[in-house]
């Protein structure tokens, strides 16, 4: 049987395996866990600043609204029982999320504005539980949130390219006209997945508006409210000419 597979469609399954049992490992009487995300300051790092981008997409796609259902709880219960060969899944805890909060995560996330340039070693966003009974949720979503490294890295490197282009464009033409078009994104065919193309493609568009990566344009349109963030032109390739 071949079914429909959507990665991370079930929030209860969006965690590295070892973290499933952490709810049993916390000390007693905990009511609040407050975590933060940063790009660490490291001696010898190539860049001293990072461009923060991509969180809004992750929040809207995976963490907003009633993301916990009875069906998802049962799916996770069966999955982890087979995976660990023992009962380790916090079925009761997730059912309380469903019953008390209608399947919405009692989590607060605060972040710097996307697109901001932030020195390394500074907090980019924080995560905390808003209901003392669900302190274990704060770091449950860590696995998903640390995937922010990818759009942040693409946006940061893209900005560094732009600085180099600006320097030489100014030196050779005396003007920065057309700078936003000087680095074109053809990365769609070279990434690992549709979502990688969307995240990386949109991150490139923080700095430039020249792209052939449609997935990035669609992400900017659907999750950032930008009607059209990038542009291209009709063009040929070898196949067209040879035939």
UniProtKB/TrEMBL annotation:
<dbReference type="GO" id="GO:0047280">
    <property type="term" value="F:nicotinamide phosphoribosyltransferase activity"/>
</dbReference>
<protein>
    <recommendedName>
        <fullName>Nicotinamide phosphoribosyltransferase</fullName>
        <ecNumber>2.4.2.12</ecNumber>
    </recommendedName>
</protein>
<dbReference type="Pfam" id="PF04095">
    <property type="entry name" value="NAPRTase"/>
</dbReference>
<comment type="similarity">
    <text>Belongs to the NAPRTase family.</text>
</comment>
<dbReference type="InterPro" id="IPR041529">
    <property type="entry name" value="DUF5598"/>
</dbReference>
<keyword id="KW-0662">Pyridine nucleotide biosynthesis</keyword>
<comment type="pathway">
    <text>Cofactor biosynthesis; NAD(+) biosynthesis; nicotinamide D-ribonucleotide from 5-phospho-alpha-D-ribose 1-diphosphate and nicotinamide: step 1/1.</text>
</comment>
<feature type="domain" description="Nicotinate/nicotinamide phosphoribosyltransferase">
    <location>
        <begin position="182"/>
        <end position="240"/>
    </location>
</feature>
<dbReference type="InterPro" id="IPR036068">
    <property type="entry name" value="Nicotinate_pribotase-like_C"/>
</dbReference>
<dbReference type="Pfam" id="PF18127">
    <property type="entry name" value="NAMPT_N"/>
</dbReference>
<dbReference type="InterPro" id="IPR041525">
    <property type="entry name" value="N/Namide_PRibTrfase"/>
</dbReference>
<dbReference type="GO" id="GO:0009435">
    <property type="term" value="P:NAD+ biosynthetic process"/>
</dbReference>
<feature type="domain" description="Nicotinamide phosphoribosyltransferase N-terminal">
    <location>
        <begin position="10"/>
        <end position="109"/>
    </location>
</feature>
<dbReference type="InterPro" id="IPR013785">
    <property type="entry name" value="Aldolase_TIM"/>
</dbReference>
<dbReference type="InterPro" id="IPR016471">
    <property type="entry name" value="Nicotinamide_PRibTrfase"/>
</dbReference>
